[in-house]
């Protein structure tokens, strides 16, 4: 494993840190953390919460730091894999605010650049880059999650339009979105004929189209962060199709592949979280730091975070050598979800009973943030590929275990 960075990469890091040193402090002064704490249990709360993120994404966009992997003509820097790692590590180290539209910047934008016509690019790429509208991703359905190719939302061609009927689910922040990239079934015979990856088409959908209903789902934190989306005869222009008719699986695999790029700095972010919770415990529940069991858990978490960092570096050096990065990528996903949940559990034990008090309680620590995190981190073993599916991949591709 070679973890040394070259001179060009160090120059990239320097340019980024110089920019952050200049732009982040005034931003944090203008937008306090509380601006992001609007509460996401209502649409208004979620909108308020997102305005700070929109402002930060726009600030990044002015410095060409919003979408570094994109081509220069669309505001990017054509960053290499190594530069992407440096970027996510640096952003984690600086604990920068969240961005407005990760789905748009990391997945949908790159796919429009890859698959879109010139007209589609002109119409939508700047919109995503500059955080003009919010975008969502509509892939999952009640019967199509891990087995995504089982999707059945029907799109029937009628002249210059597709007519859509069916249901999508778990669409993150769709209640805020004007646009979404949706996968629909244009060849319904394909499933019965055992070729379910065929006959899927990718459409860019204007969520204000008549015949579309977006219904937020309240999750176990009490917030509404994702939605069901119902189609009832919605007419979507054929001109808004991304890629060819029936090419949706190819388009989708491209977007899911892009998801991994943003994860390299997670270990560094987790190290900052661990440091933050230990230092908070010193003031709100100092006795916890004398507990031998808790001390062992802190040391264990610290060790695993360092190990995860090395795992990410090993994946990176394999990618740079053009080798397959089995089993590092699925292992890193497993490690991330394990650590996210372990840290959230450790936090509430370290911070004492008040850490379990929710937002709104007089006793809540950090406005109930640790309570929310404790519940919310359950999602990490489902999103971006479930734990069981990652284990299947490791068994199949890395360990080459026999199939029954
Ligand atoms: C926070 C969050 C945000 C999301 N945002 C979006 C979004 O914006 N757009 C979108 O389209 N989707 C989104 N999703 C949905 C996500 O992609 C799905 O939840 C995921 O693909 C799993 O599908 P599922 O929920 O239908 O579970 P299922 O696939 O039904 O799985 C149920 C259980 O069965 C297990 N299982 C499934 N298949 C196998 C197998 N072959 N072997 C062993 N075990 C198996 C799973 O591990 C799981 O434990 C989001 C999910 C979360 C949690």
Topology:
Layout: H1 7-30, H2 43-62, H3 81-93, H4 102-115, H5 118-129, E1 135-138, E2 154-158, E3 161-172, E4 179-185, H6 189-192, E5 200-206, E6 212-217, E7 226-237, E8 241-242, H7 248-258, H8 266-284, H9 292-320, H10 328-351, H11 369-376, H12 387-398
Parallel strand pairs: 1-4
Antiparallel strand pairs: 2-3, 3-7, 4-5, 5-8, 6-7
Helix pairs in contact: 1-3, 3-8, 4-5, 4-7, 8-9, 8-10, 9-10, 10-11, 10-12
Bound molecules: flavin-adenine dinucleotide (FAD).
Flavin-adenine dinucleotide binds next to strand 1, strand 3 and helix 12.
Overview of this protein structure:
The protein is of the alpha+beta class and 404 residues long. It folds into 3 domains: 7-100, Butyryl-Coa Dehydrogenase, subunit A, domain 1 (Orthogonal Bundle); 135-256, Butyryl-CoA Dehydrogenase, subunit A, domain 2, CATH 2.40.110.10; 265-398, Up-down Bundle (Butyryl-CoA Dehydrogenase, subunit A, domain 3), CATH 1.20.140.10. Helices cover 47% and strands 14% of the residues. The chain has 12 helices and 8 strands. The chain has helices spanning 7-30, 43-62, 81-93, 102-115, 118-129, 189-192, 248-258, 266-284, 292-320, 328-351, 369-376, 387-398, and strands spanning 135-138, 154-158, 161-172, 179-185, 200-206, 212-217, 226-237, 241-242. The protein has a 4-stranded mixed β-sheet with strand order 1-4-5-8. A hairpin with a 2-residue loop joins β2 (154-158) and β3. α8 packs parallel to α10 (328-351). The radius of gyration is 22 Å and the shape is globular. It starts with 6 loop residues before the first helix and ends in a 6-residue tail after the last helix. The structure holds flavin-adenine dinucleotide.
């Amino acid at each position: 494993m070679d973890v040394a960075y070259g001179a060009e990469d160090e120059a990239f890091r320097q340019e980024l840190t110089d920019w952050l040193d200049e732009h982040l402090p005034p931003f944090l002064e203008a937008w306090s953390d509380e601006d992001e704490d609007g509460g996401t249990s209502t649409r208004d709360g979620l909108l308020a919460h997102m305005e700070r993120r929109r402002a930060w994404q726009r600030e990044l966009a002015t410095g060409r730091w919003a979408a570094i992997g994109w081509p220069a003509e669309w505001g990017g820097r054509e960053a290499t894999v190594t530069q992407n790692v440096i970027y996510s590590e640096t952003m984690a180290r600086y604990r920068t605010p969240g961005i407005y539209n990760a789905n748009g910047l990391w997945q949908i934008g790159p796919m429009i650049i890859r698959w879109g016509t010139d007209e589609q690019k002109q119409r939508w790429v700047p919109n995503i880059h500059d955080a003009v509208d919010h975008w969502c991703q509509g892939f999952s359905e009640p019967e199509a999650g891990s087995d995504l190719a089982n999707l059945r939302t029907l799109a029937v061609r009628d002249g210059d339009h597709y007519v859509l009927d069916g249901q999508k689910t778990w669409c993150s922040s769709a209640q805020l979105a004007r646009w979404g990239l949706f996968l629909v079934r244009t060849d319904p015979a394909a499933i019965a004929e055992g070729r379910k990856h065929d006959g899927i088409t990718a459409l860019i959908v204007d969520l204000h189209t008549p015949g579309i209903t977006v219904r937020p789902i309240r999750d176990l934190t009490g917030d509404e962060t994702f939605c069901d989306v119902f189609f009832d005869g919605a007419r979507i222009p054929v001109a808004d199709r991304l890629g060819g008719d029936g090419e949706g699986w190819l388009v989708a695999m491209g977007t899911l592949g892009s998801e991994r790029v943003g994860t390299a700095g997670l270990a560094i972010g987790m190290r900052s979280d661990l440091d933050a919770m230990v230092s908070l415990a010193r003031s709100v529940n100092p006795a916890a730091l004398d507990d031998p069991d808790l001390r062992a858990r802190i040391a264990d978490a610290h060790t695993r975070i360092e190990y995860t960092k090395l795992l990410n570096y090993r994946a990176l050096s394999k990618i740079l050598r053009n080798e397959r990065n089995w089993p590092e990528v699925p292992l890193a996903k497993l490690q991330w979800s394990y650590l996210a949940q372990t840290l959230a559990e450790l936090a509430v034990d370290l911070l004492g009973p008040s850490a379990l008090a929710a937002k709104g309680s007089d006793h809540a620590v950090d406005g109930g943030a640790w309570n929310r995190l404790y519940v919310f981190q359950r999602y990490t073993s489902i999103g971006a590929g479930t734990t069981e599916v990652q284990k299947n991949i490791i068994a199949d591709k890395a360990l080459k275990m026999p199939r029954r």
